[in-house]
């Protein structure tokens, strides 16, 4: 039996899953307790190398930190990508702690407070404007501080991207300025003391369809070039979004990155460079960079049979890895890949339901999964846990301790 690709990517030694080359039992001893999240440094590096090798050289890579803001992970990634996109003042501080300069940090997201806007202006990061009133507040923050804010307009496009796990553009949105309202905002900004760098379009997340993403990129370029024509200042920054998905479930096919690369290459050569030779062109990715590089390790604390069904109870759960329980934006609950991490080579011989330690039926981690026979004390690994894991989970729910996170 060949292990699933996601499991094979981590590797194994003497029947144990390895992370960063270290067998999980030893890693658990090093951490001192379970459960914990482990992120594989080598896999992160390989992932960005794959992006660099497949996307054209003129495309800059930005890391969308909300996918995984663990400081050590962000530090490591900061050495691989060109820039970081943040969505809160705390994320901004983490990004500023890396060697990247403020000019390569962008701050997106609705509901930025006056204080956050002032912090961003003082830091010198690029503020991605989500509304006309936010733009006005940035201008006053700049006036008050005697600094010239660096801004880009986040545009809510007039098209939708089908097949995204989460849609964040097209139709009415809390994100960005509707494209039809952008010309008026450009006029306002032309007379304000701000440095308008360009445009940002991010229309959706978790998309596995290269053809749909390519079409969205083509429409995005068309839209930003039309807007660039209307801008009074030269456009130096085009953030084309991202939305690259990763396979979570058995039937998911990995994204065809080659096709995306070919499309971006054609867009750069035929559309962008002839019109905007000097603009930085950015793809902004979160989950595609980190999602597959992380694993959540739990230990079995109990087993029982209830009316013919085998239950395996682990010491972790949805309070740390909400997405694996199916409660983070999924419509239909399906199992994330999981394995008995210290019995990687043992053949499958039972079907079990893996549940977490929370006293709620929502805490279901694996429904009728085929696994090797496991015992109390064995380790269960939940994969695809590198993005939207710990920080996207209700850690205070039921009051269990927070898990450790390590970069190996
Ligand atoms: C969340 C977010 C991303 C990252 O999405 P992924 O699916 O993790 O790649 C990128 N840009 C913006 C503006 C976001 O809000």
TrEMBL record:
It comes from the Bacteria. Its cofactor is pyridoxal 5'-phosphate. It holds the Pfam family Orn_Arg_deC_N. Keywords: Pyridoxal phosphate. The active site is at residue 359. The keyword Secreted does not apply. The keyword Ubl conjugation does not apply. One of its GO terms (biological process) is lysine biosynthetic process via diaminopimelate. InterPro entries: Ala_racemase/Decarboxylase_C, DCO2ase_PEP1, De-COase2_CS, De-COase2_N, Orn/DAP/Arg_de-COase, PLP-binding_barrel. Residues 45-291 form the Orn/DAP/Arg decarboxylase 2 N-terminal domain. The modification N6-(pyridoxal phosphate)lysine is found at residue 66. One of its GO terms (molecular function) is diaminopimelate decarboxylase activity. This is Diaminopimelate decarboxylase. The lineage of its organism: Bacteria, Bacillati, Actinomycetota, Actinomycetes, Geodermatophilales.
